[in-house]
Amino acid sequence: MTLTIGKLSKTTGVNVETIRYYERIGLLTPAVRTESGYRTFGEREAERLRFVKRGRELGFSLEEIRTLVELADQPGQPCAEVDRLAEGHLAEVRQRIADLRRLEAELERLVGCTESSVRECRIVEALSGGR
Amino acid sequence: MTLTIGKLSKTTGVNVETIRYYERIGLLTPAVRTESGYRTFGEREAERLRFVKRGRELGFSLEEIRTLVELADQPGQPCAEVDRLAEGHLAEVRQRIADLRRLEAELERLVGCTESSVRECRIVEALSGGR
DNA sequence: CTTGACCCTGTAGTCGCTACAGGGTTTAGC
DNA sequence: GCTAAACCCTGTAGCGACTACAGGGTCAAG
């Protein structure tokens, strides 16, 4: 049950070059190669890649995922550090949401300008320093 | 009332290297130079830089700002395009908020794991493919 | 046996800066 | 007048997380 990089890409939904990139930065262990130099992957590798992918989908950085992967490889350890990491990340996400909401409110105030000329446009005015 | 790049940086709150960067990519017109090659800026240039800065604070990309600057320079034109740009941007901001909210909800479900070991940790489990 | 689909490496591009290195210039204090 | 600090210059490289080539080698179907 070994896969080429193309097959692995299909089954995981991760781009071929992204997989190579992950290997290059050491997030995936160097793949076993065929005689001709092609990478081969087994179920273990596919699992790990899916782990990384889900981490990305949850918005973790690759550095955070690197830590999470290491932690996940030590099932006997307490999960406090995992939880701390996730909480920190959640806090960041909330901060980003708050920032974007402020932006949203300000943009809402500006759009829908029906002035006939840029001279009177309240968007341009706001950008130019008017309030 | 001419300013050096350092003074301009202080009065606008934009980093010196960022100002140079904006000039390099053509977002600011090339600054007038002194004999010894130092950039000098007047009120016009300061205004324009503040325009760019406010655009960034509203989350516009530099490309969008480039367009906005050009539009703002043609006060006779209708402001429909400005408005269209701002609305498109608002839609993007809303999309990003929606995405982050989904993330937030998922992370909320996961954090606060008090298991004693990584083996049982629901965060690791979620990343490993469990739900 | 050819053709097309796949694989390889290495490098450069994206965005919006930021941080040097290695120089030249100006200014403030003595 | 001199020196040292503070400023300015260019050019290049780095960040994160990919993506997109170029220029080659390999494999499988018909």
Radius of gyration of chain A: 23 Å
User: What is the typical, i.e. mean, pLDDT of chain A?
Assistant: 95
Low-confidence stretches of chain A: none
Number of helices of chain A: 6
Give the spatial strand order of the biggest sheet of chain A: 1-2
- Tell me the structural class of chain A: mainly alpha
Which chain pair has the greatest contact?
A-B, 51 and 51 residues
Notes on the protein architecture:
- Two copies of one chain form a homodimer.
- The first copy, chain A, has about 130 residues and is mostly helical.
- Chain A folds into two domains: about 1-60, Multidrug-efflux Transporter Regulator, Chain: A, Domain 2, CATH 1.10.1660; about 80-130.
- In chain A, about 60% of the residues lie in helices and about 5% in strands.
- Chain A contains six helices and two strands.
- The first copy, chain A, has helices spanning about 5-10, 15-25, 45-55, 60-70, 80-110, 120-130, and strands at about 30-35, 40.
- The N and C termini of chain A lie far apart (about 65 Å).
- Chains A and B meet through helix 3, helix 4, helix 5 and helix 6 of A and helix 3, helix 4, helix 5 and helix 6 of B.
- Chain B binds a DNA duplex (30 and 30 nucleotides) through helix 2.
